[in-house]
């Protein structure tokens, strides 16, 4: 977004409330105040969650429940609701809900924000807070037979989790689900199914060939990345892991999420030169990720192993070669460091610029081919237009972000709305489509590839002319990083799939006390039942493909 | 036909009987000659399938997707056919718990059987035709649709919900597209006035138009291109290829009716599917492309015929590379509301053309 | 209909131009870029046993055993567990451990992937390239210490 030329029909600035105004609005429901680095925090009674959130949503305009973080202190449990505005994500507020140490019960936010459903289930699963009034409080990532809550303080790491078979349902037993209603048929789609893009399990109830009900069963790829990060040092050991959340070549985007949160937390200034390199690398990753998304979506709709998938992979391969030259790895880059990047551009620089330029030059032709093969194809249009419809209000309630939200006409892109890196200096546009259907989401991705190419081109120009003596790639960062005790921050970047946020709380050591990942795929996947119910099985598959989930990021 | 009827003149069994002097043995000789003929034709088709399945399909897909395909074993990677055969046949045959046994075993047999049966009446040129009954065309259609029986048997007997969905889809699609297919076929019969395959081929020998010394024969594809396009589309649907591969639909219902089959049965299903494609091509060639007709001496007929059925095979693969699959309801809708109407419109159109030509 | 035909024309164009983008892998060794990170190589002659690599490793891939005089006895690295983040190479002050571009390794069991210092020493260079050259120019950025306290082991 260029700052120089204001848009002719620029929307009116979003009304902003000061922390005190908000406190007044909430009245005596607030029992304390906290200061988070990103937002004011209001401590409220555990039985006033719905009141407070609906007041904030309806009267103050905080319509985006970005994330729910649960954690355990020595003396209490705590759930933090990170609220934002879709119109202006820099306006943030944290609603802190303490719960009793012995009997952690807190009111559910699900009636206000649908997205709280899964987030609170996760909090229950990993930390062990009970949510009152939650429609379906079960474990979500771990199996039902799991003993204890892994992120709770009294969790016994050494306790064997292998439970006797009798405690688990016999997987081979006769399945009578749905038999009392003889009009429907229960069908397991996945966890091993060609179209679930990984180990996702959809418990589907079919009425004929139409989907009467679908429920996602996730967690097959759960590794508790949050705990892994809590065991790593800020300075080095966390950075390799973000690559593994959204592992479909969106690594640099994920690394940036962590880098941004940690840099803001420790107050590290990143040199401008490094910001340009980061921006370029991140957009290259976005192209690679969108290429794969488009290719696999085509695969889901076309059926067999088709040409378009291979063409997308071929073009993605070019991006990956560039990224390999830059970072030394094809997927697991570990290229960012706190305060910059690890390497300058590869020598000879001219060769790197030329290679990247060649790719950008060939890109319009490749995209033309995609349009011929995919978006221009009448059968594909028949298949995707008006299927998997996700109205904007529903998308907002579920916290959908990224191409999924932009395909529903929600003009929300953190690169522009909450600028970081070098984005606000560059000239590019946020892509939105108003169709709300599978086709719109496909178009958004295809058009975003063009926008990313524009950004990369500008970055290349900048890097080419950058004075040699001014090429600082890393700020001076202490070898051991110990942010101040009890600092809390929630920061998000625009990942390939949407808003990828990190919440961190420090306890004065060199490792985070709580590390929470707000995964865009996790929230986006929640919308699947809304999109698929009443549609045919092929449309369920297409809707899933258009969500472009990566199970590594859903399950973390 | 009863056994007492002497072998039809010019048919393959007759040729064999003459060649081997089997005529002296009466009915027994005729049966032996007929079996030998069927054996020859079946093997010819199986060889074609062997080339098409493990080798040509991979090569073609690779060409469409910019890849290198099978090229390591033997010249042009051709020995992969042998390797694949050994691999597939030596795999374990897994029988699902609760499979409905006789039906589960019969299904995979029915598919290649029905497709091979259809070839009994196809004139392949160079004197290769097993029989030439007066109801030839009806026989070919009838034989090829036995396959749907096999599909639903497999789908039902596998005790798998995906298979069941696939089986049901197969039946729905076969019914929806068989009717337009046959009605379009009938429009050719309006021209020829007979269902006999050799007569249909014969009727296409005459010259249609002569332009600048090049004579275009009176193939029905040239006489009525609209019917030809309709027929090819319905044919692709009938043999279940993209964009109409609804019964298999790997990304939706995994592989439909064939989900539970492995090893020998898997091979049989695949053989059946490929022969079915060839049969579809053969019927289309006979009805619309002059059968084995082509430049050069009549002895080259089998070469032209093979080229035509391979062209149809290539066409299905081309579609596979570029055309998305329809949704099942759209597919059925196009069948009943689109193709059927067009097929009858074509019948009327053909009647008009016949009237004009006559 | 036009769209379908356009799509079919596109794939046919690709089929006929004869270009391929895959390589015949074991016959043709793929090009890797100079910065590519593969299996480690270790030099006992250079190593000063400072244990920084062991300390920085995010998932305990490196195990060092010293005697009571702090002389190095064992240097074990589980290349099957390694996540190839290259932090060990980055912290090493003497270039004793570095990641070659060799990405091919096989073993029959998981345990065989634990390389001791002899095995690590014998890891071959990929196409004879020393990757350090391409990564070297930027090492200074890390070696230049920050303002904070320096905790050498």
Describe this structure in words.
Chain A: Its main location: membrane. The complex is a heterotrimer of chains A (556), B (358) and C (153). Chain A has 556 residues and is α+β, with helices and mostly antiparallel strands. Helix content of chain A is 38%, strand content 16%. Chain A has two domains: 19-132, NADH:ubiquinone oxidoreductase Nqo5 subunit (Beta Polymerase, domain 2); 225-555, Cytochrome-c3 Hydrogenase, chain B (Orthogonal Bundle), CATH 1.10.645. Chain A starts with 18 loop residues before the first helix and ends with a helix. In chain A, 56% of the residues are buried. Residues 1-8 of chain A have low confidence and may be disordered. Chain B is globular, with a radius of gyration of 21 Å. In chain B, helix 9 runs antiparallel to helix 13. Chain B has one domain (91-357). Helices cover 66% and strands 3% of the residues of chain B. With 358 residues, chain B is mostly helical. Chain C has one domain: 2-Layer Sandwich (Alpha-Beta Plaits), CATH 3.30.70. The interface between A and C is large, with 45 and 39 residues.
Of all chain pairs, the largest interface belongs to: A-C, 45 and 39 residues
Q: Report low-confidence residues of chain B grouped into runs of 5 or more.
A: 1-5
Q: What is the structural class of chain C?
A: alpha+beta
- The name of the CATH architecture of chain C is 2-Layer Sandwich
Strands of chain B, count? 2
Helix percentage of chain C: 25-40%
Task: Indicate the percent of residues in helices of chain B.
Answer: 55-70%
The percentage of residues in β strands of chain C lies in 5-15%
Oligomeric state as shown: heterotrimer
Radius of gyration of chain B: 21 Å
> How far apart are the termini of chain C?
71 Å
Number of helices of chain C: 6
Number of strands of chain C: 5
Average pLDDT of chain C, rounded to a whole number, is 79
Question: How does the overall form of chain B come out from the CA principal axes?
Answer: globular
Cα distance spanning the termini of chain B: 33 Å
Low-confidence stretches of chain C: 141-153
Total count of domains of chain C: 1
Spatial extent as radius of gyration of chain C: 22 Å
- Helices and strands of chain B, in N-to-C order? HHHHHHHEEHHHHHH
Main sheet summary of chain B: 2 strands, antiparallel
């Amino acid at each position: 977004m260029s700052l120089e030329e204001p848009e002719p029909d620029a929307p009116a600035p979003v009304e902003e409330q000061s922390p005190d105004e908000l406190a007044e609005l909430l009245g005596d429901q607030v029992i304390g105040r906290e200061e988070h680095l990103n937002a004011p925090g209001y401590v409220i009674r555990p039985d006033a969650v719905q009141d407070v959130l609906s007041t904030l949503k309806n009267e103050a305009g905080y319509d985006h429940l970005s994330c729910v973080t649960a954690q355990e202190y020595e003396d209490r449990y705590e759930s933090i609701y990170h609220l934002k505005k879709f119109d202006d994500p820099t306006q943030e507020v944290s609603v802190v809900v303490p719960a009793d140490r012995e009997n952690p019960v807190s009111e559910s936010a699900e009636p206000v924000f649908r997205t709280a459903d899964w987030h609170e289930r996760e909090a229950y699963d990993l930390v062990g807070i009970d949510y009152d009034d939650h429609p379906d409080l079960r474990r979500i990532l771990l199996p039902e037979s799991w003993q204890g809550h892994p992120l709770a303080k009294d969790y016994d790491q050494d306790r064997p989790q292998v439970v006797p078979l009798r405690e688990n349902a016999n997987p081979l037993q006769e399945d009578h689900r749905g038999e009392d209603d003889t009009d429907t048929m229960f069908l397991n789609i996945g966890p091993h199914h060609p179209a679930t893009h990984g180990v996702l399990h959809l418990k589907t109830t079919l009425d004929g060939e139409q989907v009467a009900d679908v429920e996602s069963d996730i967690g097959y790829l759960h590794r508790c990345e949050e705990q892994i990060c809590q065991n790593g040092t800020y300075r080095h050991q966390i950075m390799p892991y973000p690559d593994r959340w959204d592992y479909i070549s969106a690594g640099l985007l994920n690394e940036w999420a962590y880098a941004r949160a940690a840099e803001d937390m420790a107050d590290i200034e990143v040199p401008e030169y490094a910001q340009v390199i980061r921006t370029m690398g991140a957009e290259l990753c976005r192209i690679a990720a969108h290429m794969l998304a488009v290719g696999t979506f085509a695969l889901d709709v076309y059926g067999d192993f088709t040409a378009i998938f291979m063409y997308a992979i071929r073009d993605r391969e070019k991006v990956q070669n560039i990224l390999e030259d830059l970072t030394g790895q094809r997927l697991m880059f570990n290229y960012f460091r706190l305060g910059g990047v690890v390497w300058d551009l590869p020598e000879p620089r001219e060769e790197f610029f030329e290679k990247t330029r060649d790719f950008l030059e060939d890109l319009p032709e490749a995209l033309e081919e995609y349009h011929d093969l995919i978006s221009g194809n009448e059968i594909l249009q028949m298949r995707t237009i008006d299927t998997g419809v996700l109205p904007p209000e529903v998308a907002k309630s579920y916290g959908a972000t990224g191409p999924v939200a932009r395909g529903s006409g929600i003009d929300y892109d953190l690169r522009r709305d909450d600028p970081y890196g070098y984005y606000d200096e560059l000239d590019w546009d946020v892509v939105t489509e108003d169709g709300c259907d599978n086709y719109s989401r496909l178009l958004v991705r295809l058009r975003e590839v063009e926008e990313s190419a524009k950004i990369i081109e500008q970055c290349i120009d900048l890097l080419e002319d950058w004075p040699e003596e001014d090429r600082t790639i890393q700020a001076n960062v202490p070898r051991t990083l110990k942010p101040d005790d009890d600092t809390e921050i929630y920061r998000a970047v625009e990942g390939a799939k949407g808003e990828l946020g990190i919440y961190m709380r420090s306890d004065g050591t060199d490792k985070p006390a709580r590390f929470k990942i707000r995964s865009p795929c996790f929230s986006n996947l929640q919308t699947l039942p809304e999109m698929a119910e009443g549609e045919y099985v092929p449309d369920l598959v297409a809707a899933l493909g258009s969500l472009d989930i990566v199970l590594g990021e859903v399950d973390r | 036909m009863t056994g007492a009827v002497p072998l039809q003149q010019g048919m393959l069994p007759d040729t064999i009987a003459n060649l081997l002097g089997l005529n002296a043995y009466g009915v027994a000789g005729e049966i032996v000659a007929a079996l030998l003929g069927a054996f020859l034709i079946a093997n010819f088709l199986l060889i074609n399938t062997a080339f098409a399945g493990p080798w040509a399909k991979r090569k073609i897909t690779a060409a469409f997707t910019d890849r290198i395909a099978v090229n390591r074993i033997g010249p042009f990677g051709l020995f992969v056919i042998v390797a694949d055969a050994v691999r597939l046949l030596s795999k374990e045959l897994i029988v699902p718990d609760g499979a409905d046994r006789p039906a589960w075993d019969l299904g995979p047999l029915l598919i290649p059987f029905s497709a091979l049966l259809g070839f009994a009446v196809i004139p392949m040129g160079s004197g290769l035709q097993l029989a030439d009954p007066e109801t030839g065309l009806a026989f070919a259609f009838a034989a090829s649709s036995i396959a749907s029986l096999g599909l639903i048997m497999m789908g039902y007997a596998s005790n798998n919900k995906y298979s069941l969905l696939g089986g049901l889809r197969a039946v729905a699609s076969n019914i929806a597209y068989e009717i337009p297919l046959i009605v379009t076929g009938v429009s050719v019969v309006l021209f020829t006035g007979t269902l006999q395959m050799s007569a249909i081929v014969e009727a296409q020998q005459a010259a249609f138009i002569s332009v600048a010394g090049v004579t275009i024969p009176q193939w029905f594809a040239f006489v009525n291109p609209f019917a030809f396009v309709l027929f090819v589309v319905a044919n692709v649907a009938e043999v279940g290829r993209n964009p109409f591969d609804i019964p298999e639909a790997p990304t939706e219902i995994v592989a439909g009716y064939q989900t539970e089959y492995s090893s020998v049965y898997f091979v049989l299903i695949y053989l059946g599917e490929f022969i079915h494609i060839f049969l579809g091509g053969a019927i289309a060639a006979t009805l619309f492309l002059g059968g084995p007709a082509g430049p050069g001496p009549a002895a080259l007929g089998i070469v032209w015929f093979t080229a035509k059925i391979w062209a149809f095979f290539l066409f299905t693969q081309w579609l596979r590379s570029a055309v998305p699959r329809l949704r099942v309801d759209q597919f059925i809708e196009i069948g009943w509301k689109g193709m059927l109407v067009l097929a009858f419109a074509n019948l009327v159109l053909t009647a008009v053309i016949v009237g004009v030509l006559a | 209909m036009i769209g379908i035909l356009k799509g079919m024309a596109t794939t046919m164009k690709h089929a006929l131009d004869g270009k391929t983008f895959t390589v015949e892998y074991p016959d043709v060794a793929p090009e890797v870029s100079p910065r590519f990170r593969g299996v480690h190589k270790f030099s006992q002659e250079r190593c000063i046993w400072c244990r920084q690599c062991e300390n920085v490793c995010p998932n305990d891939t490196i195990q060092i055993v010293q005697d009571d005089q702090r002389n190095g006895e064992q240097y074990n690295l589980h290349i099957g567990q390694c996540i190839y983040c290259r932090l060990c190479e980055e912290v090493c002050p003497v270039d004793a451990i570095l990641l070659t571009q060799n990405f091919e390794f096989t073993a029959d069991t998981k345990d065989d992937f634990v390389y001791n210092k002899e095995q690590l020493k014998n890891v071959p260079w990929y196409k004879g390239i020393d990757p350090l050259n391409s990564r070297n120019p930027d090492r200074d950025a890390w070696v230049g210490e920050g303002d904070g306290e320096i905790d050498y082991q």
